[in-house]
């Protein structure tokens, strides 16, 4: 398989509500793909199916053995120290060392022995990223990981993800509501609508991306039109 991710005929319904009808999706090794779509279009449902978390999803799914997922909520265990959260579920003798290495990549070495309850929202999401990184994933699945962060923290978290992706080159599938986030980070943006991938946009811009670049502005307009949002309506 030359693709890192290959999804064929993905389907999912909840009783008579058909959410995913016929989704085909490919991600090349090291490619960063963003998935946008209106609220309720099935973005999270698709991500969960790809992650193997949804036994009732139908279709064929191929993905790297090592994959990791980061959700909008950090899902850290409050009674476990940060470094233990990072290596939760892993076995081996050097777990603390591995946790510290991953925490240093997200700038949180100093918080290794803290409990999650003492961290800010942005720090908690960085721990969740470290927990993903420590698994050296070939595929990183990100489900609105910055959705709950304030604007400045969100920008910093986006820059961190861009840097980690450039260093480690996993394939990435990022679910986001935010067309600017998609255009800042992704090689390609997919639009999920009516239960399938309705559009694919190549983000043919060098990195780091400049939001004022005329091509960026044009792509932003196309994506918003694809979502059925007028340019003046900022957020969905
Ligand atoms: N466990 C469930 N039971 C019933 N319906 C569900 C369940 N999970 C999801 N759905 C429905 O499937 C549809 C798609 O949900 P999903 O969370 O995948 O959408 P989304 O595109 O990620 O939305 P958002 O952007 O608002 O997070 C929604 O209509 C939702 O109500």
UniProtKB/TrEMBL annotation:
Gene3D superfamilies (UniProt xref): P-loop containing nucleotide triphosphate hydrolases (3.40.50.300)
Keyword Membrane: yes
Domain of life, per lineage: Bacteria
Pfam families on file: ABC_tran
Record domain ABC transporter: where: 5-219
Alphabetized UniProt keyword annotations: ATP-binding, Cell membrane, Membrane, Nucleotide-binding, Translocase, Transport
GO MF, any single term: ATP binding
PANTHER family tied to this protein: ALIPHATIC SULFONATES IMPORT ATP-BINDING PROTEIN SSUB, TAURINE IMPORT ATP-BINDING PROTEIN-RELATED
Name the record gives this protein: ABC transporter ATP-binding protein
